[in-house]
Amino acid sequence: MLITAHGGAHGTGRNSKLYFSRIPEYECDVLEVDVRKRGNTLYIAHLPALFPKRHLSLEYALEKAKEYGKLINCDMKERGLVGDVIELAKKTGTEDKILFTGWVVSEREAENLPFGRVFFNKLSGIPFKEGNAAKIKERLGDNPRLAGINAGKRFVSDKFLAECAEAGIAVSLYTLSSRADAERYVKLGLYNLTCNNPAAVREVFRGYKEQ
Asked: Facing residues of 119 across strands?
C-alpha cells in the first residue's frame, strides 16, 4: 500500500513551500500537487491564479520529488495539460515519478502515455458503485498506463472497495483526515491512501501488518 501526503498535509498549506520543506516527517510514498498552466508555465495551485508567478512551479515540485525519492501525483485541474507534464518530466528526469489523477484526465490521453500512470476519477458510463468492479476491470484492461481508479471516500461504499480489491483493481482513496479513517480503510487492501495526516496512517498501517 502507498501513502500519499495530501497537498497541505500536517497543516502546511496546499502547494506551499512549507509543505515541501516537511516532506521527511510525512513518512509518505507520494506527494500530491494541483497542476495548472498560464502562458508557458506549469504551476501548482488548487484554484486558478491571476498571478501564477507567485505560486510554486511544477518544476520545483518535480525536483523535490526527485530529491526525496518520492512519487508525485499530479492532480490535473485543467484539460489538455498531460502532454505538458510529460515533457517537463523528461526535462527534469522524473519520468519514473509521475502519477496522474483528476476529473479532467481522459482515457484517450492515458492510453498513449509514454510513461506515468493514471488513476481515473471517472470512467465514462461506469459509476464507482457496487456491482461495477468487473466492468471497471475490463475497461482498464492490461495497459499499464491505465493503472486504476481514484475515488473519494465520501462517495464510495466499503463493499464497492472490497469488490475492487477482490477483482484486482488498484484503488487510490482520498482524503483520509483522522485515525479512525486509517483504521477503517487500511485493512481493505487498497493501493493508495491519500491523507491529511500521513504519518499517523503509516503508524496504523505498521500496526496492522504486525498483527
From this structure: 148
Give Cβ neighbours of residue 59 (< 8 Å, ≥ 6 apart).
Answer: 42, 88, 91, 92
Q: 171 with 4: CB under 8 angstroms?
A: no
What is residue 50's DSSP assignment? S
Give the pTM: 0.96
> What span, in angstroms and rounded, lies between the C-alpha atoms of 183 and 169?
21
Q: What digits encode the pLDDT tens for the residues 139-196?
A: 999 999 999 999 999 999 999 999 999 999 999 999 999 999 999 999 999 999 999 9
Q: Cβ distance 44 to 57 under 8 Å? A: yes
Sign of the CA dihedral running 24, 26, 31, 37:
negative
Q: Which helix (H) or strand (E) holds 74?
A: strand 71-76
Examine residue 194 and say whether the peptide bond preceding it is cis (omega within 30 degrees of 0): no
Q: Is 167 strand, coil or helix?
A: helix
Identity at 104, one-letter amino acid code? V
| Residue among 173, 183, 82 at smallest CA distance from 128 | 173
